[in-house]
Amino acid sequence: MQDKVRVGVIGSGFIGNIHVDGLKHVPEAEIVAVASKTPGKARAFADQWRIPDAYEDYRDILQRDDIDAVTVGVPNYLHEEVVIAAAEAGKHIMCEKPFARTIEEAQNMLAAVKKASVKLVYGEMLCFAPKYARAKKLVDEGAVGKVFRIKQSEEHDGPHSPWFWDVNLSGGGVLLDMGCHSIEFARWILDRPPVKSVWASLGTYVHQDKTQGDDHSICVIEFAGGAVAIAENSWGKTGGIEDRCEIYGSHGNTMADLIHGNALITHSKTGYGYAVEKADTTTGWTFTGFEEEWNYGFPQEMQHFINVVLGREQPIETGEDGLEVLKIIYAAYQSAGEGRRIDFPYDPPTVEKPIDLWLKAT
């Protein structure tokens, strides 16, 4: 029986670093290669993480018979191409969020995975964050009674790479980039009931000079059974990242803060090297993070991916989940553009990007 999974890492940016850091915590994973199209970047990345082989073309990873699985941490506009190529090469796949830019891309990816009979895990780490996993267990145990309201928010002052600002490359603004986290968190907590309606309000309040995309979004989702989820996300919040949830039920409630609840409250007149993701200063009062990747759930997510490849677990997050989240995001952009609630069942366009439904209406 296979007891080791040999992994190729595709992408050497912010997410690539997170994937490798997570995999380093997994005893059954062996990282054997990395690919990045930027000349020299893959080699530098490989040297940093002590990965044996580096390539400028990800297809060199896919051609290797000694690689079992890949992580896909490339920009959104490359997800379809890379996932389909990986599936056709017989590699198991962990694809970072959001799953795709369009419904058509997502459907093509799922079809390729199904045809090749490979395993795919959708990269939603909030389901593995220790505090959020404990919140889910509380709900499942009945600790708060019947859940009627969920709020999840992830907020900071903008994305890591310039391509995010280009809606043609990314497919959307903050709602697509980070709202996908909040939406899937709510679906997961509620055991993924059908959606009844979606309403959203979007705006570009801070970064009009950089993007046509939304930099603050509020999305309200009504589920069958009566529960309501609020997804509020921002690229306009200064001072470092925020990641919080609130769950209200008929017999109680629970709340979690992934960032501040795990931080050292620090005051420094001179500043220091690093406080927390997206913090623009380390002088004065700051929240100094530690074990961020563990608190976010990335090592646990990678352990789950390897367990799926080894046949020990079924995916908690599937490509189909990624597609369902994308459908809700389409409805939210249409709602914001047309100023009305979108009722489900809902048949979104397959080729247009979700943000097109907002831009053409505004």
Quickly describe the structure.
The protein is an alpha/beta fold and 362 residues long. Helix content is 33%, strand content 24%.
Give me the secondary-structure topology.
Elements: E1 5-10, H1 14-23, E2 29-35, H2 41-49, E3 53-55, H3 59-62, E4 69-72, H4 79-88, E5 92-96, H5 103-116, E6 120-123, H6 130-140, E7 147-155, H7 167-170, H8 174-177, H9 179-189, E8 195-203, E9 216-223, E10 228-234, E11 242-249, E12 252-257, E13 264-268, E14 284-288, H10 292-296, H11 298-309, H12 319-338, E15 342-343, H13 354-359
Parallel strand pairs: 1-2, 1-4, 2-3, 4-5, 5-6, 7-10
Antiparallel strand pairs: 7-11, 8-9, 8-15, 9-10, 11-12, 13-14
Helix pairs in contact: 1-11, 4-5, 5-12, 9-12
Written account of the structure:
The protein is an alpha/beta fold and 362 residues long. The protein folds into two domains: 5-125 and 298-317, Rossmann fold; 127-295 and 324-359, Dihydrodipicolinate Reductase, domain 2. Helices cover 33% and strands 24% of the residues. It contains 13 helices and 15 strands. The chain has helices at residues 14-23, 41-49, 59-62, 79-88, 103-116, 130-140, 167-170, 174-177, 179-189, 292-296, 298-309, 319-338, 354-359, and strands at 5-10, 29-35, 53-55, 69-72, 92-96, 120-123, 147-155, 195-203, 216-223, 228-234, 242-249, 252-257, 264-268, 284-288, 342-343. It has a seven-stranded mixed β-sheet with strand order 12-11-7-10-9-8-15. Helix 5 runs antiparallel to helix 12 (319-338). The chain is globular, with a radius of gyration of 20 Å. The N and C termini lie far apart (57 Å). The mean pLDDT is 96.
